[in-house]
Amino acid sequence: LFPVSNLCGKCRPSDTDLLQPSLNFLYWSLHQTTPCSQQRAVAVLLSNVSLLELLQKVLECTWHWSPPSRPAYLSSEDALLCSGWLLVASLLVYQHRYNTEVHQTLSVDLTEVLKAVTFRNKKPILLLVSIMQFLRAVLRQNFSSLLVIVGQNTAPSASQPQPSSLQDTALHPLAMQQVFSLVVSLQNLLVHKDLLLSQAVVACLETLVEYLYVKNQDVALHVASQPWHRFLLFTLLSWGQKSFLQPEVLRLMTLFVRYQSSNIISQKEISQIIQEAAEANIAELPEATSCALHLFLSQV
């Protein structure tokens, strides 16, 4: 781990052939190890100033991203961005968990992060998922981290959101306008019928509403009860038989039950889920479906 992290620190973002597998190795090392070794691995990586400076440059390359010549093609540059965002998201989570000393902070523009998700612009699904993993991590930490400073774009701009109400102040650094733009974008991404993307979107939506509930319960309940959610739900349910037992549908249903969005999910839908679960062979359900069904029933 030590020599690979040192090697990364000597690279430039353009060294994709070397950097991308190296960052993947660092990411894998964090996740596929024992808790004791994980804590040591986090300390090694966070003490490497050159590595963190390199990660800062990699993240900034995202804002200059341009669509590939082949839309469905994941270029080496795209793959590097994915690896960079996933590694930073993991470091963010584990630094907080182990309260690890930080030798170099990273700076991320929240406006650009939200724009990357809101205006998809043909971005590869894996890159969107990676950025959403980072967004979930900072939301869970209330945008307060020793490792990553998340701020709004300081450049003067007509679109720069300014705190215009008590709600904006309560949700800082997010603004209500940004919250609703993000929710609409997540809803739109859900209908792409991509499993990996759907899982990431629902997880991001869950974390966002949790964050809002802590900051301002009225705003959280308002977001969770948007009528468009019901149309989204019907769209997801039109995918085929036993559609209620899709993991992302179950997790969405759980979200609406948790925040008492009775205009989105009715007693009829709840009964139908329970009926489908009763008729299914529980032992043969995929693990993701079993976990989502357990959470739904517990919430009910």
Automatic annotation (TrEMBL):
UniProt-listed GO biological process terms: meiosis I
InterPro entries reported for this sequence: Immune_Signaling-Apoptosis_Reg (IPR052133)
Segments forming a coiled coil: none
Protein name, per record: MEI1 protein
Species in which this protein is naturally found: Sitta europaea (Eurasian nuthatch)
Gene name in the database record: Mei1
